[in-house]
Amino acid sequence: QVQLVESGGGLVQAGGSLRLSCAASGRTFSISVMDWFRQAPGKEREFVAAISRSGGSTNYRDSVKGRFTISRDNAKNMVYLQMNSLKPEDTAVYYCAAAGYNTVQATGVGAMDYWGKGTLVTVSS
User: Fold this and answer.
1) Distance between CA 104 and CA 39 in Å, rounded?
2) Which of the residues 15, 52, 117, 118 has an alpha carbon 20 to 30 A from that of 78?
3) pLDDT in tens, 1-43
4) Which residues neighbour 91 within 8 Å (Cβ) at sequence distance 6 or greater?
5) Please, is 97 exposed, middle or buried when counting C-beta atoms within 10 Å of its C-beta (0-12, 13-18, 19+)?
6) Environment class of residue 113 by beta-carbon count within 10 Å: exposed (0-12), middle (13-18) or buried (19+)?
7) Considering only CA atoms, which of 115, 125, 121 is closest in space to residue 24?
8) Residue 122: pLDDT band by 50, 70, 90 thresholds?
9) What confidence tens digit (pLDDT) does each residue in 100-110 have?
């Protein structure tokens, strides 16, 4: 099994920045792609960003391109999401997820093998 623990959420004003972190533990050798998803109140969970095992490939949902950056440190079993120019519509619980395959193009919730419990990001206007 793999355990994922997110941190770094909080309250920020529109235009501000936050950096989310996700720590992986357990059978980390079994995971390849790592993603961030988010779920706003009353809405379905949606894909935000993905990064391949090497970090050489990334994928983002259109609404965060140019504002969010996903990165990972395999030596520390960490993945990060740097969020800049935050907007009120970015308010959501952000989840770290991981899967054993290594493609950043699979963006469905059902494609992920492991999930964290989430961290809340609130962007005030």
Assistant:
1) 19
2) 15
3) 999 999 999 999 999 999 999 999 999 989 999 999 999 999 9
4) 40, 121, 122, 123
5) buried
6) middle
7) 115
8) very high
9) 988 888 899 99
